[in-house]
Fold these 3 entries.
Entry 1:
Amino acid sequence: MEEKGAPLIHIEHLYHRYEHSGDSTESEPQYSLRDVSLEISRGEYVAIIGANGSGKSTLLRHFNALLLPVSGDVWVAGWNTKDSTKLRDIRSKVGMVFQSPDTQIVATVVEEDVAFGPENLGIPWEELRYRVDWALERVGLGELRKRPAQFLSAGQKQLLAIASALSMHPDCLVLDEATASLDPVSRMRFLDTIDTLHGEGITVIATTHRMEEAARAERVVALSEGTVIMNGDPRTVFTECEALFRLKLDMPETVKIAMGIASQVTGFKNDALTVNELVDAILGFSK
Amino acid sequence: MTQGVVIDVRDLSHAYMPGTPLEVQSLRRVNFRVCRNETVGIVGPTGSGKSTLLYHLNGLLRPQKGEVVVGGIELSNRSADVRRVRSMVGLVFQNPEDQLFEQYAGDDVAFGPRNYDLSKEEIRERVRKALEMVGLPFSFKDRLTADLSLGEKRRVALAGVFALEPEVLVIDEPTASLDPGGRRELIEVLKQWRKVPRRAMVIVSHSMEDILELADRTCVLAEGRMVYSGGTGDLFLDRNLLQAHDLVPPVSLQVVYGLEDRGFILQGKFPGKSLLTTREVAEAVGGMLHGQGF
């Protein structure tokens, strides 16, 4: 892996438009992404937020060349995604996990699903075995390796999807609403696993409608109608109440509570991103 | 039957693929009751049987063991009037927008009423009222369903259920995958709907914030068993209960408990029951810090 901080994904003036199905009366070309320029560094944790239809998923699908720009360029680890000879390299650098647990598992047994990707790359057996062990270990599914995937819970299936991405030894995990269908306990477990992987150097790019989740990232990018509207650290983005509301977004609950307190108590800091941070702020103030 | 009970589930058990090696017991002797004028939340991990229970409430699944009585109609009776039950109980599935199939939004809303013996004017009136209830103008009927946003599609799907004028609304994960703005709008629609007397609502959600905002009473399902049923506030204010059932409370209460663990007790000063929402917690903490009353 190259050094942390170097650009991993570099996007310049990206436009994207879906082909129209034909039965629509719209004649104006509708861009789902308009002039997006963005850079994501190695080792970064970036949350992408935006209303339904703002272009989040479309943007994500450009990160591993599932979609190609209508105009503009996307580079992944220095390769232009339009260069079809680099497709395999790009796809193995960037692993994706989608929203629905049931639509991304290809094998019947847990360990076979994890082996599927590297097996297709022709990785030798010993190395394959090592990768599968390692990936299952990383997400805590080691003991379930022989289990039929259909008997996993939704939360376990999402962890399996991560393991299957990890077995490709990616530099980057792209999570498209990956926690949306999980119950709260499974969601916490999933997010903790992501934090651990990020701590070990993996780049994480995640979309979510839960602002609490987005606040765990190091940087938040807000999209509206296919354009980047906000791009900054979570503390800055999540205290812009009016802009967030206009974009059909919200603040994390902890920021709302902190702001509620700050409106009564002068000097109380209003940007607590986590429960622990808010508790610390309250206790600190009460001394 | 007690006055006001509109859904009464007694000792209900259900297995998928019974009698095969793949048999999965989904519900185990579940008792569940819904009265008029109340909203009941159902929470529990994936696979705990929540959706299976919902499918029994309008006769999509019929009881294998136990009884389901809806508006006095006994659904374990094979000759029960299921049509009558379905017009009484409106069931909204997860991602209901996936079921829109008409080209125009209005036709989708009108689909249900058209299957009943109603005049054109009556159907038109039902569509108008239903769209209004979900906060959309009547002119929305002429919009192409394919061009709607996710939030709009979901509201059109909900209007299709409202157009049947159910007395009970049963809704599975209403806010999942909506953006925060769409969620706020939908919660408001549901709050408005249930304001009409004698109506009742059953809501399944993984979002404890939804449950806190909507449900008067909450039931917890775990591995097919009903392990708790009681006031929503009582559930979230009882840490032992939350822990026992592996539930994560809403963020506002996580803050209250985080403070409690470090010796900063809010409940003592502000009698427990109302200290639940983001606003209430902010006001309580603000009041204490402002008055420095500790």
Note: The beta strands of chain B are 5-16, 24-35, 39-43, 65-70, 73-74, 89-92, 168-172, 200-204, 217-222, 225-231.
Entry 2:
Amino acid sequence: MKKIPKILIFVSFIASFATSSVLAETATTSGDVGEITENLKNRLKATVESVTETDQNDIPKAYVGVVKDIVKDTIVIEDKDGKINIKINDDSDILRSPGNTAIKLESVRIDDGIIALGYGSREESVDGKRIIVSADPFTPPEKTSAISVIKEFAKNTIILVDGEKEIELATTLKTVFKNSDGVIDKADLNEGDTILFSALVDEDGDYTATVVLQTKKAETQSPSPSPLE
Amino acid sequence: MKIKKEVTVAVIIGLLIGAVVVGGVLRAKSALQKIESSLNSTLKGESFKADTNSDPTSLFLTLETADNQITASNKITIAGRTLPKDMVAGIVINGENGDSIIVPDELGSFSQDISLVKGANTIHVTVYQDDGTKVDSTITVVYTTSEI
């Protein structure tokens, strides 16, 4: 019976020592809170990325470009952002435009224009589902846009000043004229106005305006009195 | 006497226990303070870096419309963000089936529906400032009713 208090004291001592050690250890461990937070962030990021990647891989993507190489069952294409490997398998439909006739991989030629629809990522490879090739590249019509000052008006043409050079901007009945409030008439434009335009560029390099936005009105000069008055 | 001796030993042991517990708590507290100060300095460093790297007046363009997408609709909404409208002259959106020139709102957000042609559509977006400074981005969209 006499030993019981001693044992209790001994146990209490050990327990207290252990508690303090744990407290100290916790503090030391939490000394790496930054590291832990960083690890947690990285894990979360990796999880989100893997989920996002999985989701992204479930969404079909379209790549438009030119055939650069054909290696076994892979068409290497180049689009606006670089090269992509399009894997062809038994489920892939390859069509030649115009006419959309079904063709085999062997009939795809280097420098063909190509629209590749499939699943996968640019970084790895795309599992091609529907491939459309054409002898002519799928290039958009050439367009341009610029911000310039109106120098003068000619018949169906606005002469613009862009630095030291002049631009002849043809207008048609389809050309849309507007300002920040909405649609305006061509007659609302004046010499000295600043405009932002979008135009089609033809084979000769001539511009035909599709949309013209009046961004700034010409600074109105105060009328000076006539010497005759 | 024997009892007194045991009581004395118990008191001494109790004091020792107390000292050990207090020591542990103090050690934990000082360690936490060190961590807090190191975290604070790290955070301050990060915000400083962010401030030096971002120029609120430099022209930018962020398109929210996904690139390389396939749609079964003949229209698509081109949306994005740039500088607020008082810092931008206009945004030119060149599509295959027509062009648009719009201005962003007070917060720099913009959105415009454009029509698509069947097949490949290259959509070019350019933001202009009054002095001719511009920034652009291009996305590709394929309009098809075929199942993929």
Note: Chain B touches chain A through 54 residues (CB under 8 Å).
Entry 3:
Amino acid sequence: MNTFTMEQDSPRLQPAPPLTIMASLLVWGWQNDFVLFAIAMGILLELPHVISWRINLSDKDINQVVDLSGLLFFLAIIYVFTTYGAQGIYVILSLFPFSLFLVMLAQRYNPENTIKTAALFLSIRRLGNDAGEDVLYDVDISMPYVFVCLIAASAGHKMNELFFVLFGLIIVALMWRVRPRHFALYQWLLPFFAIFLIAFVTQIGVRNLHYSAEMFMMNIFDHYGWHSRDPARTMTAIGSLGRLKLSDRTLIRIKSDTKLQTPLYLKEVSYTSYEYSIWTNPPIEFDIINKTSGRKEWKLSPGTADTDKLEFGLYMQDQSTIIPAPVNINSLFGQDLVQVETNYLGSVRIDARPGWVNYRLGVKDSALQQSQPDSDDLFIYEKYRPTFQRLAHELDLYNKNPQEVIRTVKKFFADNFYYSLSQNQRYPKNAYLDKFLFEDRKGHCEYYATATTLLLREAGIPARYTIGYVVSEYNPWQNRYLVRGRDAHSWVQYYLDGEWQRLDTTPANWAPLEAEDSTFLEPLIDVFSWLRYIISSEEIDGDIEDDFNVAWFLLPLMAYLAWSVSRKQKVKQQRPIHSDLVGTESEGMDSPLYSVIVKLEKEKDRRHAGETLQNWIRRICPGNDAKKYLQLVLIHNRYRFNPTGNKQEDKRILAEGVMKLRNQPST
Amino acid sequence: MFRRLLYQNYKLFFLVNQKVKKRFSPHGLMIFAVMCAAGIFGIDTRATLSFQIFSFTLIMLLMALLYMLFFRGRFNVTRKLPEYGTVGQTLKYSIIVSNRDARPHKNLLLTDDLKNEFPDFNYFIKTRDPLDKKRNRIDRYLGYPRLVNTLRKLRGGNIKSKVIRHIAEKSDIDVKLELLPLRRGYLHFDKCTLASTDPLGLCHALRTFNLKDKLLVLPKLYQTPRLDLPGHRVYQPGGTNKASLSGDSQEFISLREYRPGDPLRSIHWRSYARHGVPVVKEYQDEYFVRYGLILDTYLDSTVDRDIFEEAVSIAASFMVGHRDQDTLMDLMFIDNRAYRYTSGKGHHHINAILEVLACIEPEPDSNLARLQELLRKHIRECCGLVCVLLALDEERLSLLRFLDDYSIPVKALVLSNDGADPVTIQFRNIDIHYINSSRVQQDLDKMVARAVAA
């Protein structure tokens, strides 16, 4: 028996190997644009590996350093959240290495190169020496600090796959020091090699899983939670980090007799005031449109004839919905419609039963009347004014007439900007438009429409931010244009030459770019969506639709029912062969004995009700006379009631017996 | 309701925490924490790249956990415990690990566990912890630190793990473990675990052995002053072997391990040198007088449990400290019913008395009347009394008055947390000493100084 053992003194974290802190700080600095800070901090923290100079810090000193760091971090949290709003959480994350730096520095230049847990936790500090060895001990926070730097680095977006590789290498360096020495080197390296490969695939899977889950939830949200636009307020995705993703769900189906030559813009709502990513309107009253007498038709511009008609299928989540409609809408017709309203900003709201609603929309040559521009259509908040003044100066808009301004603005966005659904840089809340116009020069339609609206206002042209949908996707087998969630768009309406006109500065490739994210299951989903639409929607005016009839869907069902019924009839026909009940009334009625019975009833006595043939024969034919009848009655009964008997033979015997009786003289 | 919910959560958390700590190494725990943090920050894969950290650390841990499936090891484990332990005294014992495999094993972590007895909800609510005074209000209300402390006390001790660097194939190894008992009474050993770390050093593959055992831990002992009570020898019923003569015979009986409180002159230095631990000589008493030791076990809610523990220790110290004199010593207390154990010639051995004291429990309801009844029966057999009291309230003063009437010299030791105010009542035969529970030995030493001065 040997005693080759070693005491395990409460296992503790090992210090981080030299240069790992520097490496993690550099990754963090590169990712978050703190490179210079990272280098300086890294040098200060790695220097104790090469110099022996130290400061004797008491526990109290270290406690004060920790408290100071905590206070500074708390102040930073308040500042960041007031500046960045909810997105500030990621800014806070990126600042973690700063918050722990002083503590780390105190530890590094302390001769013991550790700090007490009591310094980090007030509850332990209050207990003092009573806290017990299991909670009060010296700890080296260098390894946790490396991980803090790496997690903070993940808040930046400079690298993607490279970050994964760098993180992996740093963690390998950290784990090298603490590896169990009794394993061979290859036993340690091989798992890490496998980890690299599997983790790389896993992180791609995690990202895709997130996208799929998000898509799934968005579809559910769209299905159950899609509501009409709020005419008073809309929140844009300006300043939202990451990649913008909209639903692929079909929201509107449009049938047109003529093919659309250009994308059709369906306006929902215009807004007048912008601040902090939100467009708002003052309280708006809707005016009820009078229905044309005797018809389910509403004329928005009475006295004007329709120049063309479009058939809309729209999913109504609520009873009352602002409908996407062309700006030149003239009339609405549909059996499901109950009420139609408009407002001075050109929005149309209908009342109908929730679910799929079909209506016919008539258009005219000119746009629906909107209110004249007022001071709201030229208003810019002061915080945004310097940005647009600077841009207006750069484009020399102040010295141009309105037509030239429109052309210049259009050209400015077309030449210098590109479409992007991703926003990776984080800025203060009111700085996103400035960064969009002067630095990033990329964004989605809400950036373009908002910036254009405010720029036109700065140039003195009344403008409104407008949201709605753009129709371009034609589905041949549905024979309809489809409008999906991802077709949502925003543009500008500006007032010139006495009318409101449309200006869309978003690069024209926005729709294909948004379609790139669609799922490969989209065609299948479309089929189910179409079936649901067909089954749940009603016709506009009660007529049978010419191109598709619900009855076609019922055809397989009807065929099945017919087959089922015919099968049932076949069964009925077969049953008498095996049944004891069916056919008792008709079978054997041609028995020859009946003629004898009739004769006997006339000559002797009638059968009483319920009296059997045998009893009757015995009653009317006493003695041996009955025997010759009773033998025939047995055969008659067999012929009459036994379904499995030999009918032909029985009938022959009966006929012969009856013949014999007739030939015999009556007694 | 809220606290009950908290209690349930603490219970769950504690159990999970125990399992996680056993399964992961400190670095594995750190990777686990990093994975959780990265999972939280990386939930939006568009906003941060934390999901990459999450994926990497997750696969690391899964890979390490995978190792557990491939760990093969067949062992036998046997625990060898001593007869007794003493509170506050590190105790050494052995675990014999037998490797039944045909191959050696390296770096096995041997952990021996004392049973965790999770207190019920009422105990959790009512338990008082002296450290609560230093805790903030939230900690006091939530009670988790108090619960952890209570669990530590109920468990009764800490055992340091040992690493077995190498165990050859088909061989045994004797692993010496150290236990520091934190409370008196029985300590229940539960499971013994052999852990083998994975190649990454993150997780442990475990082999657990159910080795249920128990060890009696005797109360902590102090150096006590001699009982120089101005009494006289009293007739002892029971025959000549209990004759009331005085003096030591110096007749040697046996050697045994040193216990705190043993006089230095009893140390057998040769044995000490041979074994490395102090060993003392025991002598047979032949002459004795009879003292009574009264232990107050009425612990109401206003008095800390620690005071009771100190009272038991003081009682044990007096019982041990005077056993080598020519005395009989009666230990009298109430625990459900009245008890009187006599230590000395022809009576219980001191170890039996210490076992009794190791298992004694306080009573929440007043039992001083019953104690008085017990004293009434036996007080005339004693030539002096030591009375260890948990407080000095009216009921206990009444007890002292009762003792005072018998004209027997009494030393009353009154315990308190922060030093009780001396009573103004004068007793004829009672000498009251106040002992602060946080500095018992110093106050006992003061008793000696007072005696010398007197």
Note: Residues 235-249 of chain B have pLDDT under 50 and may be disordered.
